[in-house]
Amino acid sequence: MGDETLFPLPPSGEMPGEVGVPGVARVLRANRSQLEFRPVDLDGLSPADHRARMVWDFVQGLNLAGFYAEILSVEGHAGRPAIDPAILLSLWLYATLQGVGSARALARLCAEHDAYRWLAGGVSVNPHTLADFRVGHVEKVDALLTQSVASLLAADLVQLERVAQDGVRVRASAGAASFRRQGKLEACLTEAQGQVEALRRELEEDPGATSKRQAAARQRAAQERRERVAKALAQMPAVEAKKKAKDKDKARVSTTDPESRVMKMADGGFRPAYNGQFATDTKTQVVLGVDVNNQGNDLGQMQPMMEQIQRRYGTEPAEWLVDGGFVDLGQIEQASERGCVVYAPVMQPRDPSRDPHQALPGDSAAIAAWRARMGGEVAKGIYKARAATAECVNAIARNRGLQQLRVRGARRARAVLLWFALAHNLMRGFELRVMAAAGA
Question: If residue 277 lies in a helix (H) or strand (E), which one and from where to where?
């Protein structure tokens, strides 16, 4: 009995720490096949001052009635409960702050990372649900942006006196090789339609040729390709309209993201992109408005943003700061009629002897006043706030991952920018309240 052991021992010499062998190191070796049962307190995963708790508190203060109204699963009726929109909203806000823009990466973090697990609160989420939620509620997220600013206005933390607007070009989810001319698009559409019909005939003739799931996936992919090519052809007239008569046959549209356009980027290169617009309060760096278009420059974008601010908050700022790319004389006149003073650099004349701040013969009173105003030191000092606010907000968004979109289409691109704006206001609102409580 003395030689018997509870468990079989390895042959002598296999374990460096074998008892009785002088001079051999004794170590604890890894045993990764051992099962472990650990009690987990989800609330203990996140410290009291963790950013995840800040995100959750912010979401709890929002009015989410519009999200709950769309849920079909209700008490007293059959159906699986839906995931609480507050959880999905919190997850995406926190992910945006952390620079996570992939639904698959976010779903993985919800299973592996303590902060995301705390926000999920034991609710299982999958990439498809997360991806659909991110881009499927544009109007509701837009309303939440208004809520976030309205609460700060009500607390007198934002005055909405001076606004700076700037554009940020974001790389689209499309390659340069996806842009094709009219003839090639028509050929692609014919080919795509042929693929859809071939798959349909295959299923009708021999339903058992492939599994139902594979057949459905192939048919869905072919159908989506046909729809994208059809959208590209629908975008062609708008692209041709911007070309000179001799260059209309050179117009090209992407079959991957038909609404994207090739734009000049900040590094001087040309790539498919969207032009995002942020309007920012210069005193607090709170984002007031968001827009997205596929125009390669910012000309004419000032007036639409002014109207958006009016719709959101029922008032307009007294001063508006933009760079030279926004300058549109007609819109400066319209802003003057609305009681808004525009601060934008005056274009340098071709004649170096002419003073750019002197009124021209055809200038209206509003344009003449703008030229004269921008020649003064006071206006130059005010204009400096534009770069310190609008461009700073753009840089923060870049650092949080706003480099390339993972979605396609202008509507979905706007949804992504709204998430960035809402996450930005979450942090700015927290900082402003802390400063106000400290009497700063």
Answer: strand 270-281
CA–CA distance, 111 with 105 (Å, rounded to integer): 10
Contact present, 326 and 302 (Cβ < 8 Å): yes
- Amino acid identity of 125? V
Rounded to the nearest angstrom, the gap between the alpha carbon of residue 432 and the centroid of all alpha carbons in its chain is 23
Q: Distance between CA atoms of 263 and 325, rounded to whole angstroms?
A: 14
The C-alpha torsion from 326 through 329 and 331 to 335, rounded to 10°, is 110
∠ CA 64-407-194, rounded to 5°: 125
pLDDT tens-digit profile of 151-177? 999 999 998 999 999 999 999 999 888
Instruction: Give the SS3 label for residue 426.
Output: helix
CB burial of 340-365 (b: ≥16 within 10 Å; e: otherwise) equals bbbbbbbeeeeeeeeeeeeeeeeeee
Render the burial of 186-220: b for 16+ CB within 10 Å, e for the rest. eebbeebbebbeebeeebeeeeeeeeeeebeebbe
| pLDDT band per the 50, 70, 90 thresholds, residue 223 | confident
- What tens digit of pLDDT does each residue of 301-326 get? 999 999 999 999 999 899 999 999 99
Q: Which residues, in sequence order, are bridge partners of residue 278?
A: 166, 290
- CA-closest candidate to residue 411, choices 139, 104, 227, 93: 139
Q: What predicted TM-score, i.e. pTM, was given to this entire model? A: 0.85
User: Rounded CA gap, 129 and 83, in Å?
Assistant: 9
Rounded distance between C-alpha atoms, residue 67 and residue 48, angstroms: 28
**Strands 270-281 and 162-171, how do they pair?**
antiparallel
